[in-house]
Amino acid sequence: MPPTDDDLVNIVTNGLQASAMPYFRDILTADEIRSVVAHVRTLSPMVPAAGKTTNITIPARVAADASSVARGATLFATTCAGCHGPDGRHGGMLTDAKGYPTRVPDLTAPWTFHGGGDPAHIWLRLTTGLAGSSMPAYLNAMSDSQRWDVVNYVLSRARRAPWEPGGRLEGPGHQSDLLLRGEYLVRAEMCGLCHTQINRTGIYRGDDFYLAGGMRVIA
User: Fold this and answer.
1) Contacts for 182 with CB less than 8 Å, ≥ 6 apart
2) Beta carbons of 75 and 149 less than 8 angstroms apart
């Protein structure tokens, strides 16, 4: 499902955690943020015009008890593990709607979820999916309560954030698998910007030509 005006207002206001998108709540007024949202709608065919989106009412959360977590674990294993891995930490690569590679998020690190790590935020992501990404919507594939069970299971797997007492650095950059560690470093250091061809729009190709030889550099 595409984002509503309120979704876009929230992004501009609060930013997207674990991304390069900052918040503007201290810089722009509420009216200015609404103006930005109105302009954003003109930039992408994936964002429908105002008034053509559907607001979703979030039902009361199912109690996060052992029964709910167990049901969520079963649903996760049959529905989510194919992309996210059995432990929710797959960290592999998929492609977005334009064919560009995207990393599967670590579900044990809710502070890195772009859409927010609160229970309601995760429930919404399961309900609507993430437009333009490989994350599908489960509005018709799971009931409201089943989605809450999955939310409760995912949050039961959450580890302590690195800055909290007892937390450790265990993200993609700290893989014990040297191949995955190397892939992370290559992408984090933006090696592809020089070592990959660029297309006619000036954007480097993140497809099969990634790292296949890039721009000509004249010393």
Assistant:
1) none
2) yes
